[in-house]
């Protein structure tokens, strides 16, 4: 998803992070393209704070990073063959831009890029986890959960209906993006991630994604109480971001209602993998998602 032309193009036109320069590396074997890698020069290269917790020596310094912070699945095709050349090109580009650091964010531990970086003698440091589960049918998904989690989801759906909640899925052009933006910004601020979804550009960015994005709106008596912007690729459904207002009438969880509808929508769209994003580990583990460890590899230029 994060390497689709629509996503990369949207991020250049309306970046969600302050980007000082864009770099796109393309490796060719003759006329055949064997690898691509976007990278972004960021002066404030730590929007989720975690990078400087694991790389304190880079605090306050700009970095040329692949990929963006809004991508939690960095990879490079054909890594074993081309990684040394890409690393050399990345280091030279960072030096040209007078940047002291370059590297990779959110590399899944054990995947092809992770193994190639390790084979090159580059140590990785753990950043965070993303959460994933497989899907077939909704009933099979429920059956895979523990008794308590399964009962809670069903109870929450019943209580939300009793409280007058309606849930609607729609393409981005039909969504109330101004309302959704405010809710996502407010929710991010609750977790001290102010600025992670900048209100001035968030709606434009989501609109630019076109048919790759799907929106879920959860309303109670017309008021937006939860919303999710979900992204899709060939096999995966990404619950990319959401906003939730917990000041609701009735004994139900708007987030729980949004999550259940996300699973249903993924199944309706024929996606076999649900990508639950980062954070909220306790909820995701309880609801059948498994962690994928994400590492960072920073190099001093």
From TrEMBL:
SUPFAM superfamilies: Acyl-CoA N-acyltransferases (Nat). Residues 149-285 form the BioF2-like acetyltransferase domain. Signal peptide: none annotated. It comes from the Bacteria. InterPro entries: Acyl_CoA_acyltransferase, BioF2-like_GNAT_dom. This is BioF2-like acetyltransferase domain-containing protein. The lineage of its organism: Bacteria, Bacillati, Actinomycetota, Actinomycetes, Pseudonocardiales.
């Amino acid at each position: 998803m994060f390497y689709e032309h629509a996503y990369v193009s949207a991020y250049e036109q309306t970046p969600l992070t302050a980007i000082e320069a864009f770099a796109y590396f393309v490796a060719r074997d003759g006329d055949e393209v064997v690898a691509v890698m976007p990278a972004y020069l960021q002066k404030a290269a730590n929007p989720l704070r975690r990078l400087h917790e694991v790389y304190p020596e880079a605090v306050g310094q700009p970095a040329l990073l692949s990929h963006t912070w809004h991508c939690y699945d960095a990879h490079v095709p054909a890594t074993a063959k081309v990684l040394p050349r890409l690393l050399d090109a990345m280091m030279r580009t960072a030096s040209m831009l007078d940047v002291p650091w370059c590297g990779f964010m959110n590399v899944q531990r054990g995947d092809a890029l992770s193994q190639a970086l390790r084979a090159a003698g580059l140590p990785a440091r753990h950043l965070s986890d993303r959460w994933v589960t497989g899907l077939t049918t909704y009933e099979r998904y429920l059956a895979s959960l523990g008794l308590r989690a399964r009962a809670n989801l069903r109870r929450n759906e019943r209580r939300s209906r009793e409280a007058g909640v309606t849930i609607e899925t729609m393409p981005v052009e039909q969504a109330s993006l101004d309302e959704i933006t405010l809710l996502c910004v407010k929710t991010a601020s609750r977790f001290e991630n102010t600025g992670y979804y900048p209100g001035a550009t968030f709606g434009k960015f989501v609109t630019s994604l076109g048919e790759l994005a799907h929106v879920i709106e959860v309303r109670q008596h017309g008021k937006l109480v939860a919303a999710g912007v979900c992204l899709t690729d060939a096999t995966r459904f990404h619950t990319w971001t959401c906003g939730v207002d917990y000041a609701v009438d009735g004994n139900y969880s708007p987030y729980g209602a949004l999550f259940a509808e996300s699973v249903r929508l993924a199944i309706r769209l024929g996606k076999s993998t649900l990508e639950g994003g980062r954070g909220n580990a306790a909820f995701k583990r309880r609801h059948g998602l498994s962690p994928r460890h994400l590492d960072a590899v920073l190099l001093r230029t």
